[in-house]
Amino acid sequence: MVHTDRPEAGFIAIVTLRTDGPETQRQLLDLLVRDVEEWVRHCPGFISANYHFSIDGTRLVNYAQWTSEEAYRESFKSNPRAGALRQALAGMPGVQGPEMVAYTLRRSIPAAEVASRN
């Protein structure tokens, strides 16, 4: 089954932060996860935040999925710690960024079904 358009799948923001090594990646992950667990995950329209480390230790990528761009943008207005996360990122040694790119889903091709062996 091929989906040509799935607007219900929503909006994603891919945020990349440059780091100076694996230890900084881990510290940065702790900071970001704390923020998501405390308030973001309770925002209307939030679906998930997925964090990935580059193998070479130089980047952390957050693939965040929302029901819509509007829900994503509204979440910033309800942030009880507006600006605190940005200040923490700016003050963290060995971190550069964030760089954010937004996307909407236009086509999705699911994995093929695997025939069961009897």
Summarize the structure.
The chain is of the alpha+beta class and 118 residues long.
Describe this protein's structure.
With 118 residues, this protein is an alpha+beta fold. Helices cover 29% and strands 30% of the residues. The chain has 3 helices and 4 strands, in the order βαββααβ. The chain has helices spanning 22-38, 69-77, 84-91; strands spanning 11-19, 46-53, 59-66, 95-104. It has a 4-stranded antiparallel β-sheet with strand order 2-3-1-4. It is globular and about 55 Å long. The model is unreliable at 1-6 (pLDDT under 50).
Which key terms come to mind for this protein?
30% strand, disordered N terminus, globular, single chain, four-stranded antiparallel β-sheet, 3 helices
User: How many strand segments?
Assistant: 4
The amount of beta strand, in percent, is 25-35%
- Rg calculated over all Cα atoms: 17 Å
Please provide the ordered H/E string of secondary-structure elements.
EHEEHHE
Count of individual helical segments: 3
Which assembly state applies to the chains in this document? single chain
Mean pLDDT: 87
Shape: globular
Biggest pleated-sheet summary: 4 strands, antiparallel
The N- to C-terminal Cα distance equals 24 Å
Q: Helix coverage percent of residues?
A: 25-40%
Strand order of the largest sheet: 2-3-1-4
| Low-pLDDT runs | 1-6
Structural class category: alpha+beta
